[in-house]
Write a structure and sequence with these properties.
By secondary structure, this protein is of the alpha+beta class. A hairpin with a 4-residue loop joins strand 6 and strand 7. It is elongated and about 60 Å long.
Length: 235
């Protein structure tokens, strides 16, 4: 989006609530976790959160869209490009970083500091290491699939009390999360890890590829996300 849109002038924007950006020039595009900001020279920014199923598409004028128009949350038209956001959970015009002030550093940012994320997670007082990895105030962008697989990689139970993990372990978890997410950047739905396909996520009742113990799943934390783990080798 940065390559296609930066410096271009918006010719039209819809739905009507985005019409104020028509005539504005795109200053840049940036992300924080699943939050994306298209910034304009007017000082406004288009903030979108992609949730579990949202996506931005880029097309040439007249090119057929790959998803139905009725699912479009935002349409920005330029002289030689059309940017469409489908199925966003949030789409709004804001100023500054409204909506993401509480978030930690983006785990995929070039200057991401895993030790800083670990320190932020500890300061937030999460009860377990599994909750700490998903707390977007520590590091923005880590999702449940990556949490489960990274903990499996490090042979740590998601239910281990955070107080029982030293700083080196916690830093290594955030660093590994960054590495596997960088490896999977690019939009493919089939995530690949250093160990191949997912070892535990979505595999409850199936044998762990490392020790053969049946994978279990249980809800964890205030968000009640399903944590998948192997009770045999993630003690």
């Amino acid at each position: 989006m940065e390559r296609w849109l930066s410096g271009q002038v918006v010719r039209s924007a819809r739905p009507a609530k985005f019409s104020r950006v028509a005539g504005s020039r795109v200053d840049g595009v940036e992300t924080t976790g699943k939050h994306l900001f298209v910034r304009f020279d007017s000082g406004l920014a288009l903030h979108s959160h992609l949730g579990m199923s949202g996506s931005w598409h880029l097309y040439r004028p007249g090119e057929r869209w790959r998803m139905p128009e009725r699912t479009a949350s935002v349409v920005l038209e330029f002289d030689d490009a059309v940017a469409v956001c489908f199925r966003a959970s949030v789409s709004e015009l804001v100023r500054g970083r409204s909506g993401v002030e509480h978030l930690g550093p983006d785990v995929l940012a070039p200057d991401f500091d895993a030790a800083l994320a670990a320190a932020r997670a500890r300061a937030l007082g999460s009860a377990t290491v599994g909750e700490a990895l998903l707390d977007q105030r520590a590091a923005a962008g880590i999702g449940n699939v990556y949490r489960c697989e990274v903990l499996w990689m490090h042979q740590l139970s998601p239910f281990r009390p955070l107080a029982d993990c030293d700083d080196a372990v916690l830093t290594a978890l955030f660093a590994s999360s960054r590495e596997v997410m960088k490896h999977n950047a690019g939009g493919s739905a089939a995530r690949v890890f250093p160990h191949g396909r997912a070892a535990v996520h979505g595999r409850a009742g199936r044998p762990c590829p490392r020790c053969g113990t049946l994978v279990q799943a249980r809800r964890l934390g205030e968000q009640a996300r399903l944590a998948y783990w192997c009770p045999g080798c993630q003690r």
